[in-house]
Structures are given as structure tokens and as C-alpha cells.
Amino acid sequence: MAKLEARNIGKHFNSVQGGGQSQQQVSAIDNVNLSIEDGQFVCLVGPSGCGKTTFLNILAGLDRPSEGEVVLDGKPVTETGPERVMVFQENALFPWLRVIDNVEFGLMVKGVEKAKRNGIAMQYLEMMQLTKFADAYTYQLSGGMKQRVAIARALAIDPEVLLMDEPFAALDSQTRDLLLVELQLIWARTKKTIVFITHNITESVCLGDKVAVFTKRPGTIKKEVAVDYRRPRLPEDDGLREYQRKVLDELKGEIAAKEL
Questions:
Q1: Distance between CA atoms of 86 and 166, rounded to whole angstroms?
Q2: Domain segments of the chain as ranges
Q3: Rg for the chain (alpha carbons), in Å?
Q4: Which of helix, strand or coil describes residue 5?
Q5: Which CATH superfamily is domain 1-83+169-260 in?
Q6: Which of 6, 149, 176, 230 has the fewest CB atoms within 10 Å of its CB?
Q7: 53 C-beta neighbours (distance < 10 Å), count
Q8: Which residue stretches belong to region Disordered (predicted)?
Q9: Quick check: 130 and 148 in contact, CB under 8 A?
């Protein structure tokens, strides 16, 4: 049985037309089906505006589908829950709190006592190579370090599924390449199930066990590309080019059609 399944997911919105005189239904995604195994790393790619983030929000329980269902461990998902945690493109950290307090925050909300949550937080800060910055404030950190804190905070809650919405998009290429390797090492250690949105084809094949390619809006999954290659993977590895071409070939028609 799959860990997480999307079954025939559709999401539709009402768009106001003609100065508010009429409404037209707009479909963001339509008939999305995806099966994700326990511990699998799945990347989602597709044209801008194809509904990837809408889909991720539905997996997280932040939004409800217009049709279809999300199933986690055989049970329907109807709301948010601690077993699914989102890491956003913007790190959403609290600048008035220290790094350690940010990482402890979710544990504090869950009622974990101070000494225990401090120990858990330090464990994940060590994993993210941030222990010496535990007492710093987040506004004192670089963009890449802030994203490491955000990932540590998410992992500290010990979710079963980690949902990541372009977490490296705003970073410089050097920092992104370093985090691509670090994230693979963390994934290997924690065995988390990860769903990761990206616009970067190299990033997708570097990280993913499989890459789900979305069509233009209304988005649906056009192709799943399996990436059977050794880890950890480096973005510059020539052996990944075969997989990059497969993903690009699927995307070309969708991007061209969207621009017409």
C-alpha cells in the first residue's frame, strides 16, 4: 500500500467576469493521480501556473479538492495534521526568536517539555550544521542558513511526510547546489517521505526517485520519470543528463503550448 495517494484530484475556482456581472469556473488542476511510497523522494515540475502549489496545499490539508481525495496510510486526508509538514519558498521563520527557539516552536506547541524539545532541536541543528548559530537571531543569517533552520524546524516535529514548495528558488546557485547534496544526506538519514516542487529540471533529477511532470493549466500529471541513479547526486554529474532530457522532452510541449 502506498504511503500517500492522490486519487483523481481536481480543484476549481469561480472567476468573476464582466465587471462582476457573471462568474466562470476556472480549473487549476484536473484528474491528478499520484502514488508515493513510504520513504520515497518525489519531485513535481511543470510550467508556471500549472497548479503544483495548489496540489501541494491539498496534500498538506491546507486546501480541499473540488473532487477526488488524498489518502495517507489508507485514511482520507480532510485537514492539516502533524504527520504532514510544509516547508515554503519563504522560510516563514520568526525574526524575533533565536534559531533554537524557532526550531523548538512546533514542539512547544505540542506540549513537549523544555529540556526534551531543546535536545531534539539541537539534534536537527547539528544535522543541518547550525549548532554554533543556535543562539543567533534569524535576521542575522544568510538566505541559505535560514532555509536550513526552516528544514530543521520541520524535521524536529518528526513528520511522516515533508512537503517542500520551491525551498531553494530564492538562493544563489552555489548555495542551492550545496543544499541539494545536504538534503539528500538528511533524507537518507531520516527516511522521510518527501514531495518537492521545483522549476529547475537539474534540481528535480538530482533529488527525486521520480519526477512527476505536470501539463499546462489545468494541471494534470503527464508523465512520471523514474530516476534510477546512485546517491548522493551532484548537479554537474553527466550521468544525470539522460534523465534531464526525459523531463525536458515532456515539458517542451507544455511550455510551448502555454506561450501560444
A1: 11
A2: 1-83+169-260, 91-158
A3: 19
A4: strand
A5: P-loop containing nucleotide triphosphate hydrolases (3.40.50.300)
A6: 230
A7: 18
A8: 1-22
A9: yes
**38 phi, psi to nearest 5 deg:** -60, 125
First CA to last CA distance, the chain: 41
Cell numbers standing for residue 100: 533554537
Distances in Å between the alpha carbon of 62 and those of 80, 84, 85, 155? 6, 10, 11, 19
Report the 3 state secondary structure along 26-72. EEEEEEEEEEECCCCEEEEECCCCCCHHHHHHHHHCCCCCCEEEEEE
Query: How many whole angstroms separate alpha carbon 42 and alpha carbon 163?
Result: 10
Alpha carbon distance 141, 147 (integer Å): 10
Report residue 214 as a C-alpha cell: 505536470
Please name the residue that has the C-alpha cell 514531495: 195
Tell whether pTM > 0.85. yes
